Amino acid sequence: MRLLCALGEIYGAKRLIPVKSCHVSGVSYKTIGDMGLEFLRQMVEEGASFTVKTTVNPCGIDLEDWEKIGFPREFAKKQLEIVDCFRAMGVSRSYSCTPYLIGNRPRPGEHVAWSESSAITFANSILGARTNREGGPSALASAIIGKTPYYGLHIAENREPTHMVSVKCKVENDLKVSLLGYAVGRKLGQAIPYIGKVRLTQDLLKALAASMASSSSISMFYAEGSYEAKKIGEKKLKKLEKLEVDDHTLRKTFEELSIQQEASTICLGCPHLSLNELKQICKVAAGHRGERRLLCFTSYQTFLKAEKTGLVRKIQKIGGTIVKDTCMVVSPLTEIGVDSIETNSCKASYYAPLLSGVKVKLNSLEDIFS
User: Fold this and answer.
1) pLDDT, tens only, 36-73
2) Are 13 and 143 found together in one domain?
3) How far is CA 25 from CA 28, 60, 310, in A?
4) Structure pTM?
5) Which of 177, 301, 209, 194 is nearest to 239 (CA)?
């Protein structure tokens, strides 16, 4: 309560409001280390438990197959203790950066307290839920108390678009969408952009939200077909500050984020892969015969669905491994023999070199397997 009240004072909130759900980051031992583990131990010892629906971010290992994949035993030991702490506070197995795909999907107008920048941006922008960009500790506190300070994006007038983004190029594939998000975030920094005349699937909106949040503090955007975009009239759009994104912008963004040489491992699923994306991988990678290691990161729940529909077997047939509960950003990649990756995610291209020191080559999904 002291933590939440301190945040409220900093941001000028006059009161706390109830939240319907929380999503907590800071779950991987790679990112929180011994100090984070000690903090969680203390919370459990003092009897902390979650009072609202709560999901958590990816941890650092596949909880079932960590030995088979090659995660170090000492790392796994600490990670499993972190998992035990979250389980003691009331979390079911929900180690994913896409909680909206595994049952934590708030309704329009619902107040939530989420950390994980890509999930926050998706929740605000596509689902019409209301959350600020929480850190792991504040989301954890909200999960225990069931409330969050009333400021920022919880307030309707703070959710208005600030910029009109005119897209002057084709964004015809997953990589182009990811580059678009990253470029917009990099140019605006802190804003609420309206992305004009680009209609995307849920999977591509997921990629757009992730890359935009990686390069900026943007926590909300408008796009054609998104929930809140329907409320914005043409008059209001005409008054917004303009930003143009063209092929040159995307090319410069690509050159900034991608190495040119061949990568040793294909890593897909940042954010976590949906069932539909796993189907797409099976389709485009049909001719892949394990020339390079292929790691596909997803949630445990999506894995179970993929197992029932035969997708797990198909991925294995082309020499791939589906990795559950963790992702390429928060897992110890170098310790499992990965020194460079090829991916379609600008979020991964930003974070993987910072957190793991691996080199990243960007490509569209189809071109990765062509």
Assistant:
1) 999 999 999 999 999 999 999 999 999 999 999 999 99
2) yes
3) 8, 12, 31
4) 0.96
5) 194
